[in-house]
Amino acid sequence: MRLVEITDDNRDEVCGLRVRPGQERFVASVAKSLEDAVTTPEGEPWYRAVYSGGEPVAFVMLSWNVPPGRPGILGPYFLWRLLVDGRHQGRGIGRAVLDEVVALVRADGGQELLTSHQPGDDGPGAFYRKYGFSPTGEIDHGEVVLRLGW
C-alpha cells in the first residue's frame, strides 16, 4: 500500500472509487472531497490516493496542521475523509491507511488525530473505535467527533 498524489493522470481513476451501496451517506465521493478541498482552503486540505499494486483502492483526506483559531475547522490534524472502495473493503486497507496517516502526523509533531462520522450502527464508528479512537463528547455538523491521542 502506498499513498500517491492525485494528478491529472490519475484523477479520473481515483474519482471512480466507490463505497458499497448504502454506505454513501457515511462518506462523500472522491470528486466531492476534491471539490471540498478547493472550496475550503482554510482547512489546509492534504489528500492522497491509496494504491495497492498498480491500482487505486482508497482515498484519504486530512486537514493538515491547521493553525489554532480557524472558525469551523477541527484540528490541527483532522481525518476529513477515508473512503475504501467497496471491492477492496474487509482487507485491512482502512487500518493500513490509518497506520500510515498516524505515522505521518506524528512525524510532523502532531499529538492527536481527530475525525468524525455520521451516527449509525452500520457506519464507520465501530471501525474507528476498534482502531483506538474515542468519542470526545462533541458533535460537529451532526457528526460524532472522535480523538486518537498518543
TrEMBL record:
Keyword annotations from UniProtKB, A to Z: Transferase
Highest taxon, organism lineage: Bacteria
Recorded GO MF terms: acyltransferase activity, transferring groups other than amino-acyl groups
Domain called N-acetyltransferase: residue spans: 1-150
Membrane-crossing segments per the record: none
Family annotation (InterPro entries): Acyl_CoA_acyltransferase, GNAT_dom, Sper_AcTfrase_N
Keyword Transferase attributed: yes
Protein's recorded name: GNAT family N-acetyltransferase
Annotated source species: Amycolatopsis balhimycina DSM 5908
